[in-house]
Amino acid sequence: MITCHVRYVIDPKKIAQFERYARMWIPLVEKFGGTHHGYFLPAEGANNIALALFSFPSLAAYEQYRHDSVADPDCQAAFEYAEQTDCVLSYERSFLRPLLAQDTK
């Protein structure tokens, strides 16, 4: 399993727009075989940083999702919404190998 950690720099004046964008992606990741662990929006501290975590069975499955999402109309709508609202200023991805509770037994 591989987990993608996305760190977003967002416009703090457009948190509502970013939240709408985030709500679009949760079911889309799942549509393509991933498990979305949620978005984490600013609460205390930095007001312009948001995080997302989602997993795929393998890096190959993640790469297939990336490839297929480009042609998917719902994914394209999410990309366009972010572009139109300019709620995401930048983002960076990291890939992690999770150690989960069931892995400790």
Automatic annotation (TrEMBL):
Pfam families: NIPSNAP (PF07978)
NIPSNAP domain ranges (all copies): 7-99
Protein name from the UniProt record: NIPSNAP family protein
InterPro entries: Dimeric_a/b-barrel, NIPSNAP
